[in-house]
Amino acid sequence: MKHLLSIEQLSRTEIEGILQRTAELKSNRGKISAQPLAGQTWALIFSKPSTRTRVSFDVGIRELGGETIYLNAADAQLGRGELIKDTARVLARMIHGAVIRTYAQSDIEEFAEFSGVPTINALTDDEHPCQILGDIFTIIEKRGAIDQPSQGFGLAGKTVITYIGDGVSNTARSWLFAAGKLGFELRIASHKKYSPKKKLLERAGGRVSCTDDVATAAKEADVLYTDIWVSMGKEAEEARREAELGPYWINESVVKLAKPDALVMHCLPAHRGQEIDEKTFETHAQTIFDQAENRLHVQKAILVELSK
Length: 308
Ligand code: CP
Ligand code: NVA
Description:
It is a single chain. The protein has 2 domains: 12-127 and 294-306, Aspartate/ornithine carbamoyltransferase (Rossmann fold), CATH 3.40.50; 131-292, Aspartate/ornithine carbamoyltransferase (Rossmann fold, 3-Layer(aba) Sandwich). Strands 7-6-5-8-9 form a 5-stranded parallel sheet. 42% of the residues lie in helices and 14% in strands. It has 12 helices and 9 strands. It is of the alpha/beta class.
């Protein structure tokens, strides 16, 4: 594995390898461990705000022996129009890897191609692979057989994950590709305008259904998952999205339709009263904040894989 640019580009074996290493790194955190990034400096290049991703990568790289440089893309010459391919070739002379949060997926692909240094997608408009890998790890940790990869980490076959909200967001899209790779059932409940296009569903493969009826999608689900209605970069559509996505939220009556022990998950940040209600959020806060913590562990696993 040279880069981690999307779930789409990962094989099932690579995903399983990352998840297994995540378990090892999580249980060994704080004990003396290998420092595969010793002597390395990684750049964190962000064009959008971040709390979890920025901090978890910064901490994770340091725990693996490396150093970090944070670069707000707007403050770099990138913000004044320097080309990505030139920036990439300059930074490649100085850094050992890059973690990038930006808009277009093609920008991160271009950076990876021209820099040649390991490049990680820390969120684009298309995908949020580190988030979904951390979320899958969280589900397995709470419900599945992490030591039995051949059995699909407990996510294959019977597991039903229901995504409620903006069905064309970066997280929804990463879930789509994860379903195609791992074999669990994915249901997406969204307004028809925010439902993935047929072409994308065909490209992702897997057992995926889309509906505009939340109750149908939530019935007997193992996991109810949501993300904000207005992703970064979509602020101009805020009023329209809030009106159209109004019914697509997780609340107590939706939770009652799922399995009694269903996990309620949120990638955060949360907007109470929009994609989730306050009571449901707080009832499931343990899962949601475990999800946030697992970003650190899964990203360390990705960094280790890329340093090989
Ligand atoms: N979930 C997530 O990626 O959070 P940040 O935007 O805070 O990084
Ligand atoms: N879909 C959200 C995820 C935030 C972590 C966004 O892109 O803003």
